[in-house]
Amino acid sequence: MKPSLRLTGRRLKKLIYPYLPARLKDEYESHRFAQRTRVPNTVYLETTSACNLNCVMCAAQRPATKAIKPSGYMDLGFFKRLVDEIARDLPSIEYVYLHKDGEPLLHPDIVEMIQYASSCHPNVTLVTNATLLDEPMARAILATPLQKIRFSVDGLTRDTFEKIRIQLPSNEFVRTRTDVGYNAVTANIERFLHLRQHTGNTTLNVGIRTTNFKPTSGEIDAYRAHWSAKVDYVDVATLFSWTGEIGKEQSSSREPCLSPWLSLVVSCDGKLVPCCTYIDASGHAKGALFDLNRGTLRAALTANARTALMRAHLDNDLEEVAPYCAPCRDWRDVPIPTRGRKRIFARMREVATGTTS
Ligand code: SF4
Known about the structure:
Layout: H1 5-16, H2 22-36, E1 42-45, H3 63-68, H4 76-89, E2 95-97, H5 110-120, E3 124-128, H6 135-142, E4 148-152, H7 158-164, H8 182-199, E5 205-211, H9 220-228, E6 233-237, H10 259-262, E7 263-266, E8 271-273, E9 290-291, H11 297-301, H12 304-314, H13 341-353
Parallel strand pairs: 1-2, 1-7, 2-3, 3-4, 4-5, 5-6
Antiparallel strand pairs: 7-8, 8-9
The structure holds iron/sulfur cluster.
Iron/sulfur cluster (SF4) binds next to helix 10.
């Protein structure tokens, strides 16, 4: 078979790159980074904002946040329309995630959503707390072409886990009496892994993630060792700020947050929002950048509110346009490289002002 030019380019890079002088490597990396900011490469579709847990580090499921954004479920037809648009109109999208604030397995149509999205796109990830991953659900997921699943399990031990992944008495799912404890969750995961092996599903990539913060920090190495023997990858996340609700930004000198450039995040009611950790904690709804019930994802790319948000970040003038970003620390998670910054900022400005060539 004749190799494609793309493959040839990759091979060439692999051969030549290690021998390039440092200056040329920096040049190449800054060029690549600048290109990345031209169009988003990631979409988050919030299948549901409902969750059966109230984890201590998640501001999205706090009662005060829920009072402003009650639990909602994305309509299946609307979901399919967005997936169709991604496949047809947004070739830059490399990653599709099926969550934002909530637990996707609570959605009654989640298996059909997984089936549809992973049939249309080559890199779909389901993130779940695994509390609802009983045997029928595990078998149903394994029968889809889903490419990635990642379990959210904080802490290595039962004691740590159950101090973090709690269910408040006010949680709307308390009455379902689902066992959300450590033993039930890890048993669900073990069974899922066993079924994966025995159903011959060789394509699904399985990962697990813990947040690295005070209650877990002493267990991170043991967590990696324990889970890396069972799953394909172990991820350790930093503590998210959730628009400053958990740990406010203290620094007066800050960089633009890259999230608005790199991702498109659609909440379950169809609004484009700034990032996957955006929450409206004050009820001003300024982070609703575009209504996808009234327009397409492609139109959302150049929506005035989206580009205004970008310019506010570039000018570090957040208070009026994006007050929710001002106290947020999460912009630090994707740092802008130290080299080639002129080129990168110029490209970001082009996108923000609609002057991209
Ligand atoms: S600064 Fe925080 S709230 Fe604002 S876009 Fe970035 S991650 Fe989201």
